[in-house]
Design a protein that fits this description.
The protein is mainly alpha-helical and 269 residues long. Helix content is 80%, strand content 4%.
Amino acid sequence: MTLTVINVLSVDIMQVVLWIALIRVIAAIVAPQRIRYSLGAIGWLVFALHWALQPLHYWAINDYFNVVLTLGVAAFCGYLAVIMWKKEDELTLLITKAAAVGGIFYFSFAEFSSLNHLLVAAVASQTTQALNICSVPAVQVEWNVLTLNSYPVEIILGCTGIESIALFLGVIACVRAPLRRKLAAFLVTVPMIYLLNIARNAFVITASGNGWFGSPDNSFYVAHNVIAKFGSLGALVLLSYLLFIMLPELLDVVTNAYDMLTGGINRAS
């Protein structure tokens, strides 16, 4: 078998694993009480397998931040699977509901090419417009490629902020709070994530095309893999703080989740 065929098969297997996990998680929130926790546990275990496969991709492109992040997510999913299997805890069901809502939203764009194309093209166009408004002569040469000083940067799904939007959407949708405050929290945080992501793309393209950190390739690496990564993390922390202010009910969820994680499996037995 050629390397290309092996890669295609690997992608297909990962997609199957992903959808099995998502279907199990969705089933857990609608199934009868007696089987929902076991379904959820299996779903989280399969999710752990899915995320455990992701570091191979990020390692190949030298994105070590996401290598660590995806390994952490895989460990969390596996731990949650064990907790959910051993104890019928309402907190695990709440997290499962949030994952189902966020997962349906995110993977609809990740797995359906028409939605993926629509979102990426919109972000590429809006990034170009933002740069031009700021007198940066970037040009959109393809539906998903921008150039500045002849240096091309491809916009992919990860450049749209869809992961963070799905995370906040899932949390907001499932926390127990009045609908009015949940809607307000959505309107404050989700559009801000989208706008900040446009600014992030604009920064990376400007830094790369102008060679702010040496060669264009090195400038892209520093801007995208270092500065933008930690900048995005800081922005998410600030937006999470706003979310806690608007939805203080989240504090109980986080406190209980911390107790669950630090209490260990024996505590959950």
